[in-house]
Design brief:
The protein is an alpha+beta fold. The chain has three helices and 23 strands. The protein has a four-stranded antiparallel sheet, with no helix packed on it. The termini are far apart.
């Protein structure tokens, strides 16, 4: 099950317990979820059932099912405008697909090792992959679509056994390699000069990492020349924040570090991308002066009638439900007849339905009251922390 959560505009003040919508399709564990880079409410999910499903979250419906992988799917990545999909699979193949219908444009061997490989699209259309060699050495490669079988460059790194996850920053053209179980983060610059992938540095940490995530570029601190922010999950269960900064003496806005970056406004609607087959590059925004969020509305789920995937079962189920309803109606008429007892029984049913609705409303009111009490408790805690900080700054008996 894929659950969609709506984070409040001003952040979390209490634990979220109810998702906005549940997307149910996969028969086994879901291993990857990915938002489309330019189309609104288009989501990709990949599961251990070897299927990729394209969702329209706004309608809570599956638009397409891609069944073109014979084994477990390791990674998925859209290209810059979302018109192509790049996948790696347990069969050691790397594939470029049409995300709308699953047509395979190109297929090649990624890395010869048996452990998991990962692949991402770069902004210029090239493909960056990580994997293992025959001798189980970790390696990365750079490839060009159309010649995926012949890498531009392949470099062996070390003999560690942790799978490397590439993190790409299209604004600075940097690739960060974060291995599961590693205590280092390596970063490289992609350029047109030989050897094309240039090693820059290694960030060393004392303990290994269990997982890692990144802040979108529009969330970094431009005043301190921060170009990347990692959220690193340590073995002790704590989340460590790692900030990558470029040392600059000037306090002015550094335009070379912060070119226009993808904003928070989608370039296409879900209908334009799916029904009209449109593609568009992301809408860019400037970070000069810091990120200014746009006004967003809450996600509202409105189910459309006529979903292609649900049409056949819906018709059969509706026909069966209609037959059951007609059978129930005929049986009730024949059993009740025109007698007064039938009217009394109908009145009792209506009264019971009214009582059930009253009970449901009372339950909703009780739930809302409990949520209000929880929020008031949280506000009291925030107030206590705020007062403590004020007292620490200005002691009442200080001179």
């Amino acid at each position: 099950v894929v659950k969609i959560w709506q984070i409040p505009e001003y952040g979390l003040v209490t634990t979220l317990t109810e998702s906005v919508v549940d997307l149910v399709f996969h028969q086994r564990r879901v291993s990857c979820v990915l938002w489309h880079p330019t189309a609104n409410n288009i989501l990709l999910s990949a599961g251990s059932d070897n299927l990729i499903v394209i969702w329209n979250v706004g309608c809570a419906e599956a638009l397409s099912t891609l069944d073109c992988h014979p084994d477990t799917i390791y990674s998925c990545c859209f290209n810059w405008d979302g018109s192509l999909l790049l996948t790696t699979c347990k069969d050691k193949k790397i594939r470029i697909l049409n995300p709308r219908n699953g047509e395979i444009f190109e297929e090649a061997t990624s890395h010869e090792g048996s452990k998991g490989a990962r692949a991402i699209f770069l902004k210029n259309g090239l493909v960056f992959t990580t994997g293992f060699s025959k001798r189980s050495e970790r390696q990365y490669s750079l490839r060009a679509p159309g010649h995926m079988h012949d890498p531009i460059t392949t470099v062996d790194l070390d003999s560690s056994n942790g799978v490397m996850f590439p993190v790409y920053d299209p604004d600075t053209n940097l690739v960060y390699l974060c291995g599961k179980g590693d205590s280092v983060i390596r970063y490289f610059e992609i350029s047109a000069d030989v050897p094309f992938v240039h090693y820059i540095n290694t960030f060393q940490l004392p303990d290994p990492q269990r997982g890692i995530g990144v802040m979108p570029k529009r969330g970094v601190d431009v005043n301190s020349c921060e170009i990347m922010r990692f959220y690193r999950l340590n073995n002790n269960g704590f989340c460590q924040i790692i900030s990558m900064t470029v040392p600059r003496k000037s306090e002015l806005f550094q335009e070379d570090l912060y070119p226009d970056t993808p904003g928070d406004i989608p370039a296409l609607s879900a209908e334009e991308w799916w029904d009209e087959n449109k593609n568009a590059e992301p809408l860019l925004m400037s970070l000069k002066g810091g990120y200014q969020p746009t006004q967003k509305s809450d996600l509202k789920i409105s189910k459309r009638s006529g979903n292609v995937l649900d049409r056949a079962p819906a018709s059969s189920s509706s026909a069966s439900s209609g037959a059951a309803a007609s059978a129930a109606a005929s049986s009730s008429v024949s059993s009740s007849g025109p007698s007064r007892g039938g009217d009394d029984g109908k009145a009792l049913e209506l009264a019971q339905e009214a009582l059930d609705k009253v009970a449901q409303v009372m339950k909703v009111n009780d739930d809302l009251k409990k949520k209000i009490d929880d929020l008031q408790t949280e506000m009291k805690k925030f107030k206590a922390v705020f007062l403590k900080q004020e007292l620490d700054k200005n002691p009442p008996f200080s001179r």
